[in-house]
Specification:
Oligomer: single chain
CATH topology: Arc Repressor Mutant, subunit A
Structural class: alpha+beta
Radius of gyration: 17 Å
Number of strands: 5
Strand order of the largest sheet: 3-5-4
Length: 118
């Protein structure tokens, strides 16, 4: 019998045991999919994201945005031409490939609320 070698997936310098783990590594957690869901509509400034997601703390939002940017899912554009500093976030081409996934997650949540809530 031959020994099986485990195949790991590598993405952005991180190793994952399977494709599902990689996906959840990129979009998993409480706030990343929420951020992506709001960016589906288009580019948003940091302050606009804060208004869309009032329950998230500023520190957590900043960390989650940084993580999504490091993974190449969102892009951050800083405008320094005139004060005050303006920062905008939008989906990258890679991030746009997640739209069907995020939309399916949102649709499932709507479905559960509509059919299983009392």
């Amino acid at each position: 019998m031959e020994a099986q070698t485990s195949k790991t997936l590598k993405f952005k310098g991180k190793e994952f045991p399977c494709c599902t783990s990689l996906t959840m590594g990129v979009i998993g957690g409480k706030w990343k999919t929420v951020i992506l869901f709001h960016l589906i509509k288009g580019t948003l400034r940091y302050s606009e994201l804060r208004k869309e997601i009032p329950m998230v703390t500023e520190r957590t939002l900043s960390l989650q945005l940084k993580s999504l940017e490091e993974d190449g899912v969102i892009k951050r554009k800083v405008y320094t031409s005139k004060p005050p500093l303006k920062v905008e976030y939008s989906l990258t081409d890679l991030g746009k490939t997640l739209i069907p996934v995020v939309q399916s997650i949102a649709d499932w949540g709507d479905s559960v609320v509509n059919s299983h809530s009392k």
